[in-house]
Every structure is written in C-alpha cells, then in structure tokens.
Amino acid sequence: MTKDKHFNHVAQGVGNYSWAPDGKEFLASSIANLLPTGWTSVELYNIPIDADKYPNKIKHFYTLPKQSSDFFAVQTSQFKWSSNGMWIAFLAIPTASWSMDSNTLCIIRKDGTNFAALDHMILNDDWFKWAQAKSLLGYIGGEGRMAVENKHLNIKVLPTLKAKHSYTPKGYVDWDFTWQNPTLLTVSRAKEEKWSNDPKKRPLPTLYQVNTKTNVQKKITLPNKGFGDYNPNYISKTGRITWLRSNRETTELWMANKEGKQAKAYIDKIDTVDDYYEKRNWGEVIDIYNQ
To answer: Among 91, 252, 108, 83, which residue's Cα sits nearest to residue 182?
Structure first.
C-alpha cells in the first residue's frame, strides 16, 4: 500500500481531541482502562501537529481525578476555549449508560491549573458554550436523560468562585441556546412535564430572549400549534437569528432579526432528527457558518 503524502499520523491512544486556538497543536484526552484495581484516570495532553516527527514534543497537560463517589470519567468530549483563550471547558464522560443521565462539566485554565468540576449535565456538546467576549460559560445543567425534566440554563462567570446563576423559570425546561452578546442569550424553552411515551403529550418549545443584565425574559417566537422552535443560532456578522421549526415530522429553517422580528421561513424539507427522550442533536443535519 502506498503512503498518502497528504496524510500525517500524529499520535496514538487518543480518545477525543480539539484544535488549539493557534492551530499549531491539539488538546487530546486518553481513554481510561479498567484494571483489577479499578479504572485508570483520563490523561490530557498537548500534542503539536508535528508530533509524528518529534514525539518528545508531546506534553502531559493534566490528569483527571480518579473514580470516586463525586467523579467518574472514562473519556472526554471535545474541548472549548473561552474567547480570551484563558479557560477550557469540556465534559468528563463516564461509561455508556451512565453518560446518558449524567456527565461532569469541567473547566481548567490554559496552563493546566485551576481545574474544577462545575456541574452535571446530559451528553450534548452543543449545550455548553462560551460567550463571544469575557469568560462567561453558558450551559444546560441537570441530570436525567429525559429532556422534559430538570434542564436549566446556567451561566458561570470565571475566574470568580461564586456560584452559578440559573435563568430558567420554575415550571420550565431549557434546551438549545445561543449567545448574542455577553448579556443576551436566546434559548429554546418548553414547559416542564413528566415523561409520556406519547409524543403528542410532550411539550414543544418556543424561543425566549434572556437578558442577564436586566433579568428581563421575553418570548420572541410563536409557532403554530403542533410545532416547536429549536436550535437557535445568532449570526454575529449579519445580526440575524436562525432556528429550526419542527412538528417532529417536518422541519424548516427560519430566520429573523436580532429581536426575533421579521421572521421568515428560508429552507424547508430539512431532515428531522430522531429524539432521545426529547433531546435532539440538530448538528447532525445542519451547521451554521458564523465567522
């Protein structure tokens, strides 16, 4: 077999990775191994893109805590850097069935210090995001695989050690969200309900804007009966919001101005993502370019 000149093998034993902001290296995690004495820890490494030629350049970055009653991980999600590059957020993921109900949202400084386990949430990489400026981490917290219960929009301000701030009103659940600026978010919100095996009895979401400075929250969309509004995305270059409107069978992409006005359907016949207890990974069918 001939070697592909456009392919470079960089490193082995990688469980997950993300490009560093400078594009010159990766932050990668290993996969834990089960030994007779229990699970090994997940290790994090800084791996330069030329590590195939210079393996001694690979540097150990951090060792995640060992399995305990408070923490368990056998791998990680992707890694996400704050806008100033000072902080990194990721999910510490336990074994398969456990990860459907609870994963640990973690943060660590770029120099490998100040590691902290912030909260627990379900397995969805799109449910934790940094604001475009300042070290503000938004995420949908709450254990349990059923998305219709115990899912709350939270914001953690770093490097302060103060507790998180929750913005989900009692009796509601929050799902997908997008930052518009460091004080304004748009979130897909539904009424909190007990689980039903009948999809028609499960809640459908609408979009709300949450102003964290004034604490004003307002509904900005009103879908027709039987439809819900999911997956908001703010396009900073154009000052527009997009979202997906779906009745669980058909899906359209809608767009409006930054306040949710002048709404219009732009793309129809988008594939509808199957749900897992009403959690949907819309990134499987659509990706908004926002550069």
So the answer is: 83
50 close to 59: Cβ distance less than 8 angstroms: no
Q: Output the CA torsion 146→30→64→52 (10° steps).
A: -140
Q: Same domain, yes or no, for 46 and 73?
A: yes
What pLDDT is recorded for position 39?
95
- Whether the CB-CB separation of 154 and 136 falls below 8 Å is answered with no
* Domain end (from 145, 160, 175): 160
Q: Is residue 3 part of a domain?
A: no
Q: Distance between CA 46 and CA 108 in Å, rounded?
A: 14
**CA R_g for the chain:** 20
Host domain of residue 65: 10-160
Q: pLDDT for 1-49, tens place per residue?
A: 345 556 677 888 899 999 999 999 999 999 999 999 999 999 999 999 9
Residue 287 lies in a domain: no
Q: Residue 185 carries which side chain, given as an amino acid letter?
A: L
How far apart are the C-alpha atoms of 174 and 188, rounded to whole Å?
A: 6
Yes or no: say if 185 and 178 are a contact pair by the CB < 8 Å rule. yes
122, 147 contact by CB (below 8 A) = yes
**Residue finishing a domain among 110, 136, 160:** 160
Residues 110 and 85 in one domain: yes
| Alpha-carbon span 201 to 226, nearest angstrom | 11
2, part of any domain: no
